[in-house]
Amino acid sequence: MTMLDDRARLAVDAIERSVADQASAAGFAGFSVAQRRHVMWTGAGWALAGSAVAATMVVTAIFSPSPEPDVATTTPEPIVVTTASVPETTQAPAPDPVVTPEVAPATEAPPTEAPPTTGSPSTTVAPTMTLDSTPPPLTITSPANGARFEDKIVTFSGSTEPGATVVAGGKWEAEVSEEGQWSIQLVLSPGANGASFLATDQAGNEASARITVYLDPIEPPVEEPPPVEEPPPVEEPPPPEVGVEFTAFATYGSCELNPPYDVYYGTADPGSKVRITSEFGSGSVYADGEGNWEKKVIFETAPYGETFVVTVKDATGKTKSFEFVSWAVG
Amino acid sequence: MTAQPRSRSASRDLSVAKEPAPIHAVVSFEQFYEREFRAVVGLAYALSGSRSAAEDLAQDAFVAAHRNWGKISRYDKPGAWVRRVVANLSVSRFRKSLSEAKALARINRDAHVLPELPAEADEFWDAVRALPRRQAQTIALHYLEDRPIAEIAEILECSPNTIKVHLHKGRTRLAARLGLDREAAS
After folding, report:
1. Contact B124 A20 (CB under 8 A)
2. Dihedral sign of CA atoms B131, B135, B137, B141 in order
3. Which residue of A has its CA nearest to B113?
4. Rounded distance, CA B69 to CA B81, Å?
5. Contact predicate A264/A310, CB 8 Å
6. Separation between Cα atoms, residue A160 and residue A199, nearest integer Å
7. Is residue B70 within 8 angstroms of chain A, CB to CB?
8. S-S: A199 plus which of A138, A190, B15, B50, CB 3.0-4.6 Å?
9. Do the chains contact at A192 and B144, CB–CB below 8 Å?
């Protein structure tokens, strides 16, 4: 299957290139008017938009502050850490950690930019650089380590150095206020959840903290069905009759034809057998689905002018008798 | 949202939790959209084979996600939900036709279709789409998104064992359709 996997890899690459090439993959900004019509930001939330023009305007404003969408940018821009401007005076800046240009340790130092040459070269003095190698403080004020929750969404909060970023779980960036207060909502899984946070200051110094919290989801209580009022007793309808009443009739009672015969009919339990017997001829028949039956019985040897009894009997033993006379002339 | 020790779990030894579960953040719909849209379009393209409809299919899935965002954002993996929707939409002939019609209606305005795939890649995805529905979805998620069995099972709401069977049969049929089984044999 290696060849299949190789082939699949090529096909996957082609799909990814195709999607990446498409401007719309950069976000709503690259969408067509028709697509933008689907969704718009209303300020309070997303809603279907009836006006393509309105949707285009609003969506563009939200997702594409720049009129030229950047195809390569598909994720929100990272927070840009603004470095302090280099003072233009000849005095060295005060050792304020916030406004002092920071130089990161060599291993993780962001490239330092040359100071802007806004002033006269003759009056510019190289600024004093303060090495900041102190990790930012990082505290988790809420929740407490080992806390247990019943709701899966929990807000984690704490404090760090102003200007630092805080990332949870290696990829979820918390909101950090100007004062360095951070918070982020995280979704817990049932059981133990390890929440790790990494604070990175403007100089690239890092500090981490980790707590474990627990989610004990409440099983929804089994609601007792509301008590059902006893309905008033209803008179039981008479039970439906089981089976069909046995009846039997003779069509003629006598016959002048040769051979003589009679036709018997009636009702009986559907599917039950009805027997017709006599000294000179017999027969049997099954009642149909509705309980009807009919049978022609020939009395070939019946004596001329002599009356005899024909008995019809159902499966339960009920009987009905008839007399038959043959007037057939031989 | 406050920590409330509960009687039934009070006796649990917290120190034994050596491998805490991964944790993830609640994201806004915009973040979710920006992060997932491209991959979902790719999945729609692979499963529908329509350059014009793929984005509309993905868009429909995201609109559905937005309508239920209050609920879906609380899922452990909202991305799985939207992939399930688009996987089902993409293999639905009716929906695909509808999306193509919608896309065609705007092609003349801005010629907004995905670029054509190279012939070899096109042949591969054609063969995937010729597989039975579940096998095609499994293969697409396996190759396109490099998803493990458990995640594919979660997305398609099947058992992992079922996904294993789909993957095995799908790969076997795919190799046969592409003539790769004969090459392997020779």
Report:
1. no
2. negative
3. A22
4. 11
5. yes
6. 7
7. no
8. A138
9. no
**For residues B45 and A15, is the Cβ–Cβ distance under 8 A?**
yes
- Site from B38, B123, B186 to mutate, A interface, most A CB atoms within 10 angstroms: B38
Q: How far is CA B15 from CA A15, A190, A195, A214, in A?
A: 47, 16, 15, 12
Residue type, A165: T
Two tokens at A213? 């919290």
CA atoms within 13 A on the CB side of A229: 2
Determine the residue of chain B that is closest to A148 in CA distance. Answer: B3
Q: For chain B, what's the residue count?
A: 186
DSSP label of A81: P
Structure tokens belonging to residue A275: 């027997």
Q: How far apart are CA B75 and CA B97, in angstroms?
A: 31
Q: Of the given ranges (A101-105, B109-113, B165-169, B178-182), which has the lowest mean pLDDT?
A: A101-105
- At residue B169, the pLDDT reads 93
Interface of B with A in 20-49 (CB under 8 A): 20-27, 29-31, 33-35, 37-39, 41-42, 45-46
CA atoms within 13 A on the CB side of A271: 2
Looking at the DSSP assignment, which residues form a beta bridge with residue A310?
A278, A322
Give me the helices (H) in chain A, please. Answer: 2-21, 33-36, 52-63
| Helix axes of B119-129 and B160-177: crossing angle, nearest 10 degrees | 130
Q: Do A10 and B143 touch (CB under 8 A)?
A: no
What the block records as the tokens of A262 is 């009679």
Q: Does B9 touch chain A (CB under 8 A)?
A: yes
Give B-chain residues touching A184 at CB under 8 angstroms. 25
Q: What is the ipTM of this complex?
A: 0.74
Separation CA B82–CA B86 (nearest Å): 6
Rounded CA separation A200/A9 (Å): 37
Q: Do A12 and B102 touch (CB under 8 A)?
A: no
CB A258 within 8 A of CB A300: no
CB atoms B175 and A35 under 8 Å: no
Amino acid (1-letter code) at residue A56: T
- DSSP output for A228-279: PPPPPP-PPPPPPPPS---EEEES-SEE-SSS-EEEEEEE-STT-EEEEEES
Nearest to A278 by CA among A292, A262, A259: A262
Q: Which residues pair with A307 in a beta bridge?
A: A325
Whole-number CA gyration radius for chain A? 49
Q: Does B184 touch chain A (CB under 8 A)?
A: yes
